[in-house]
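Intended use. Records such as the asparaginase entry shown here are meant for training and evaluating sequence-to-structure methods. They are not intended to support clinical decisions.
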Amino acid sequence: MKKILMIATGGTIASAKGKEGLTPSVAASTLLDYVSEVKSYCSIETFQILNIDSTNMKPEYWVKIAEYIIKNYYNYDGFVITHGTDTMAYTSAALSYMLQNLNKPVVITGAQKPISEKDTDGVKNLIDAIRFSCEDVGGVFVVFDGKVILGTRATKLRTRSYNAFESINYPYIAFIKDGDVVYNKGDVIKKSEKPNFNTSISSKVFLLKLIPGIEPDILDFIKDRYEGLIIESYGSGGIPFEDDKNLLPKIKELVDKGIAVVVTTQVILEGSDLSLYEVGQKALKTPVIPAFDMTREAAVVKLMWALGQSKELNKVKEIFLTPVKDDFIY
């Protein structure tokens, strides 16, 4: 019988109505009471590491979660993390970079409705997550609405529907129905023999979404306060370069100061290719770092993690452009 550790962080799944709306208040042990049938195929223990709305998630908490898993890594066969849906994709990406080459599953799940409500999706999601945590696979995964998504490829696309998460630019790993796991893509989750743990991270990363007419001077504010910048550009990727809206000189100032600049796209599917258009090729000469088909969440967190390893731009670029668990494909 597999031994599983469930780590609770709060979120909608653990929420109840308060004076100012839903607020996390249900303990980890109580969550487990709703899915007592899982005890027939695994031994499961709980730990309440946080009890927050995931809107309040921050990098320091990612480190706290990761370090608790590292501390207990050899005591359990798998891990389940209950989490709010709003920043779940950021946390799954963060753990994917901090906990690499795993030989056991770390599974993140949550719910769109509190587990105490009659029409909750929390019971099914938690049962599915615990079921998948008993699989002989390694890696970080999001399990939601019967789907298993690679930790670096999850994005929340819907605010209310039960099928809140999608796997972006990558196949689903597996599907879970009535307790059966049917694999769709298994080669990426082969077990590794030597886990690699590294929780160093820099939170000084800014995400800038371009809009038509954006003023270049906004980059002066970023230059004095951040170590890294993610620019969400348009379409296949590119930076405005005409007239008084030319962002390229300001971006070069950032790079010259040692600030890492990554360019991704606002378009969710199919990724970016800065080599395709003039607006992209001019940006590459600045030089910026392309994010290819990474999710927004993975790009942000990976830059944070890369800056936690080094402040030297060439090294940061090397780390960022080294694939981790298929987080991007050229």
